[in-house]
Amino acid sequence: MGNLIVDGKRTDGRGLLDLRPLKLEAGTIKNAAGSSYIEHGKNKIYVAVYGPKDSHRYGTSMEKAVIRCRYHMSPFSTDERKSPAPSRREIEISKVIRDALESSLILDEFPKTLLDIYVEVLQSDGGSRSASITAASVALADAGIPMKDLVEAVAVGKVDGTLVVDLSDKEDKEGEVDLPIAFLLNENMITLLQMDGKMTVEEFKEAVNMAKEAAMKIKEKQKEALGKKYFEKVDEK
Amino acid sequence: MMPKKGPIISNLRKDQILKSLSEGRHIDGRDLTSQRPLEITPGIIEKAEGSASVKLGGTHVIAGVKVEVDTPFPDTPSEGILIVNAEVLPTASEYQEPGPPDEDSIELARVVDRGIRESKMVDFSKLVIEPAKQVYTVFVDISVLSMDGNLFDASSYAAVAALMTSSFNVYRMEGDVPVKTEDKMAMPLADLAVSLTFAKIGGSLVIDPTWEEEGIMDARLTAVYDSDGRLCAMQKGGSGGLKIDDVFQVVDAGKAKYLDIRKKIVEAVENAKSGN
Q1: For residue B36, what is the domain's CATH number?
Q2: Terminus-to-terminus CA distance in chain B, angstroms?
Q3: Is B235 close to A194, i.e. CB distance below 8 A?
Q4: Cβ-Cβ contacts under 8 Å, B221 against chain A
Q5: Do B236 and A196 touch (CB under 8 A)?
């Protein structure tokens, strides 16, 4: 502790409220109904959406499309090789990503169908679940799934006793608090919220407001990526 | 996608629950800020290093602690290890099949783990036999015997009470080999985690949802407080969203409530210890 913020600058040179470089692209996988690619910090993540597809499987609903989500890390995505079998962490993250996206979608138009969201983390850095949500929402929009708004996620946290936006891997591991949050901004809603580490209730509220500001910036990137596909690359598709 | 693991709530029953909530009462008659009756009984399993039974309304959870020795993780050579597992037993309801933990049980275990770990409740630096060689591994296994909603809080209280009443055999190194001695040491503790779960149902924000209420909730939010009322772990669940103001209301309501629960846990633990 005590060396992650020096003179108001973070270890990677960012200010307290700065996001890491973020690159988003829509329509990256040919066969998918919708797809995206995100680079956020060192995260490199592809998302493919398949469906809604008719299914008579056990577990479908007469009322709406049922979402399945798999968050998976490639074995080469981490410093130490990660076993390709799903870990408990990946199973939990798959679930919270699904929950984070579901409330943005209007699914009752597709009863008795499945909607699959596949998230493949090719390289992981701090905030991979947040980047996955940001990218998956773009892929869902690309697939034409009706939605109330895009969802964007960012991890805020406390580092050297100071609240900062968009934790790097180092800040996540060595900092005091990691607080990933996903927003449905035009409903003023939170669709994912997890926290570990200690902060006061007042700090927490401030952190949520900081995350919201960051989410607004990320939303612009999402709209840009979709705009680029649908208004500039139309002829290529 | 898992088929829904719970009773289907009829529209009539749903209307009853929502009407009751809109009048400021849970369907079981509680007001919206009251938990169901909470009964914490530590020390029910003699063969475990620590244990506790927790009944929260119709939910019944047992947590048992076992301590073993193992080599530490390479990145934390001077810290003991905590492993939390949870299983919803087929005894818990007609909807539960035997088998490996599903995503709900995994989430449950990980959220309980996070609360204990991030509250710094267990002092891992004191769970070392010889740095980089041998440390104590604390297994907390949670068995859900009966299901009636809010497994997060019931499991957390059970795990916390079990840890607080744990003591285990000390090991000493003889050369490179850890050897069990007859000396006992108590679980080294530095704090106490208190978990509080709220559900958003219709327009109401309620504490300690029942299973039926969970069946119709939009979302839930679990907040874990340390002894000073700081937040140390949180988890939102459910497929709906929560308004930002709801989230702020939850963290304030939790802060107003956590001392009550903390007192109940501490009393139960002290009673169990003085009874021995």
Answers
A1: 3.30.230.70
A2: 47
A3: yes
A4: 193
A5: no
